[in-house]
Amino acid sequence: MIRQLTGIIGFALLSVMILLPLGGCARHPAADISDKTEAVSAVPVAARIMQSVEVGKWPEQIAPGAGSAWVACSGSRYVAQVSLGSGEILRKVRTGRFPVSIASFDDKVFSVDYNSGQGIFVIDAQGGVTGAGRLPDHPEEMAAGKDAVYVLLWQDGSSIGSSVVRIDPAAYVQKRSEDLGPDAMGIAFGGNRLWVCADNCMIELDAHTLAVAAKADIGTECRQAAANSTAAYTIGLDGGRIIRVDALSYSALHSEPLEQSVIAANDEYVFALGVSGTLRLYDPQSLKLLAELPLGRAVEAKHMICYKDKLLVSEHTGGDDPGRLTTIELQK
Smallest Cα–Cα separation from 21: which of 211, 231, 178? Predict the structure, then answer.
């Protein structure tokens, strides 16, 4: 662990700024704020479910664009396009045999086939589908960046190893990173930085070369990833704490434990939506709990993203019941 060096300011600054592209994680003191966090009695915002639309079996990742939300419905084996205004399902598009992960870039939606086909498909604004090659390994999750689309891969379908592929959205040319280690459970892009949560670390990759820029030790396995302009976030498996990794210092900050949740982030809040149907809002810098907003029903959330002033959530129980795309409006 990088420890504070008293009396030698120059060495201290150097220790904090060292990036470790090849070795283990850079270890920083992890602040725990559980003894400092109290929910305020006056809720600063309100939240309500605007609409909840049945989209198909097992909806997973969501990609927004042009007034619509595209939802990968793996159990129904299509990608659904849903109007965010009317809630109408505009299209059901076939993209491979088992679509789970999607990402939108300009007027295109990229979808990858989760099973051994590993195909890449591009949906245009009219719903037309173009094949864009195959991935070199098993896809787990996608993220859209400033000038590329990224796919998190597992080695031979196992969490024993992981890597990231960068796809040029115009030419569909691929570039692959080095091995990033085991247990990769999330990828996110924010503030022109690409983040992957793997090997008990939050890893920053160069968005163009995919070289490892830094590894920050978070001290636990994790699930999910989210990012804004100043930090990356994940949920640790050691009690379900939200973990914030600063984009400059790579220091880690842990929230208090919370119920099973999915997370999303923008520059105003970090959002955690729990299975009880409570939406929690945290300060994105301190992870102080700002509000707890009940939505009035339980939520089986699988994926959540921020889109303008709303949250988009995919829900399903894993059974045969139809899954839903739920839109949550934030009100001040």
Answer: 211
Q: What is the pLDDT of residues 286-316, one digit of tens each?
A: 999 999 999 999 999 999 999 988 999 999 9
Query: Does the residue 30 lie in any domain?
Result: no
Domain assignment of residue 288, yes or no: no
Q: Are 125 and 107 in contact (CB under 8 A)?
A: yes
In a domain, 9, yes or no: no
Half-sphere exposure of 251 (CA within 13 A, CB side): 14
Q: Both tokens of residue 324?
A: 């839903």
What value does the mean pLDDT take over residues 111-134? 91
What is the span of the domain harbouring residue 262?
56-268
Question: Domain for residue 5, yes or no?
Answer: no
Instruction: Please count the other Cβ atoms lying within 10 Å of the Cβ belonging to residue 283.
Output: 14
Amino acid in position 175: K
Are the C-beta atoms of 295 and 11 separated by less than 8 Å?
no
CA 127 to chain centre: 25
